[in-house]
Design a protein that fits this description.
Layout lengths: L2 E5 L1 H4 L7 E8 L5 E5 L2 E15 L2 E5 L3 E5 L5 E16 L7 H6 L5 H4 L10 E2 L2 H20 L4 H24 L10 H14 L6 H8 L3 H12 L3 H17 L6 H7 L5 H12 L3 H8 L3
Length: 291
């Protein structure tokens, strides 16, 4: 059964200071707990990879991924392997009048505006945007720690710049034209979308390369450069992330889960699951099933 912790802003922000905080977290184990909070949170994945549960969606996170959550969303890191991430936390009053303008920006409206439904939207940053995002996060962290004159104004300004970057990258990722000056980026986005839509089917790396219009060797090389994983490693981890989502149902069999996520051999599925999550599928199901 899922255990959910509830975090309050009073635990994260100093009293009488602007409610903005940036923290660096390291994860390298399976997490059995999930949490929800009273504040907004944006997460940037710097190193490693992790399967992540968000409301009813489980997905794979790799370096360069960034996503945001609103108060009340339930999430947790199901399994993290050498993962280093930045947490950017803030209460809405930190932004004051600027919040209304930010709510209207693409990518932010489903996070900051309660009139829109809360949806899972992970953005993949290109290398230049990754450096820019880390720069804002590190500078916010620095201002919070040093607290020199004007630090709260500086912190607020950096947060706004960070959120504007998020919106711009959202537009870039979902635009039909060139995504960035890194010409291969649009091909990787297209490949990631293909994998997300077809992960449960039988396909080869050649099929993905053909779909996006690249040679298999070139596609494999740029995919590894962009995600830190080979296409095969990424596909396996996506399938395992989806399997985690099925395994919270106590009535589904391991064989059924394996077939649902694209593993034709339940034994191979179980071996891969244990290798990545350090426990068998049946053990995970016993410890995390929803009753």
């Amino acid at each position: 059964m899922l255990h959910i912790d509830y975090l309050h802003g009073s635990e994260m922000f100093d009293a009488d200071c602007i409610p903005i905080s940036v923290r660096i977290a390291e994860h390298n184990k399976s997490q059995n707990g999930y949490h929800s909070h009273t504040f907004y949170e944006f997460v940037y994945i710097d190193r490693g990879f992790s399967t992540h549960f968000y409301n009813n969606t489980t997905s794979l996170l790799t370096p360069g991924d960034i996503f945001g959550m609103r108060p009340g969303d339930v999430h947790g890191y199901v399994y993290a392997k050498n993962t280093v991430l930045y947490n950017c936390l803030f209460n809405p009053e930190a932004l004051q009048i600027e919040l209304e303008e930010l709510k209207r920006m693409p990518g932010l409206m489903h996070i900051l505006d309660d009139e829109y439904p809360s949806v899972w939207q992970k953005i993949r940053l290109d290398p230049l945007s990754q450096k820019e995002a880390i720069g804002y996060l590190e500078r916010m962290k620095y201002e919070s720690e040093r607290r020199d004159i004007g630090w709260e104004l500086k912190l607020k300004g950096l947060l706004i710049e960070f959120l504007v970057l998020f919106s711009r990258c959202y537009i870039q990722q979902y635009s039909e034209g060139d995504v960035s000056e890194y010409g291969y980026t649009k091909y990787v986005y297209k490949a990631l979308e293909y994998i997300e839509e077809h992960y449960f089917e039988k396909f080869k790396i050649e099929d993905i390369a053909s779909y996006i219009g690249l040679s298999t060797d070139y596609f494999s090389r740029i995919f590894k450069q962009f995600t830190g994983l080979t296409p095969i490693e990424y596909i396996i981890n996506v399938r395992l992330a989806k399997a985690v989502q099925f395994l919270i149902d106590p009535d589904i069999s391991i064989e059924e889960v394996a077939l649902e996520v694209g593993f034709k051999d339940p034994g191979y599925f179980s071996r891969q699951f244990k290798q990545v999550l350090n426990m068998s599928p049946s053990q995970y199901q016993r410890e995390n099933s929803r009753i």
